[in-house]
Amino acid sequence: MSYILGTNLVLNEQVEIALTRIFGLDPKKAIQVFDQLGLNDKIKVNKLTKYQIDRIIKIISQNYLVDLELVRIIQKDIK
C-alpha cells in the first residue's frame, strides 16, 4: 500500500480510482487532480515515482480540503 494524505492506496489500482479513497476527494475532484498531473490514464499507484506522489500531495493540499482538515471543519460545524 502507498500512504498519501492519511490514506492507504491500493498499489495495483489505477491512480484516478485510488485517489477517491482519500476522504473528501470525490471522483470528479480525483479526475481534476489526475488531469493536472498529465499522466497516462491507465497508470497504477505502484508505478508512480516519488516526484509524482509529491505532486499529487501538493495539488490536493493546495486545492482541496481533505482528510483531517475536512474532519476538523465538519466537527466544528456540528458543535
UniProtKB/TrEMBL annotation:
One of the protein's GO biological processes: translation
Domain of life: Eukaryota
Keywords assigned by UniProt, alphabetized: Ribonucleoprotein, Ribosomal protein
GO molecular function: RNA binding; structural constituent of ribosome
InterPro entries recorded: Ribosomal_uS13, Ribosomal_uS13-like_H2TH
Any one cellular-component term (Gene Ontology): mitochondrion
Keyword Phosphoprotein: no
Alphabetized Pfam families for the sequence: Ribosomal_S13
Family: Belongs to the universal ribosomal protein uS13 family.
Name assigned to this protein: Uncharacterized protein
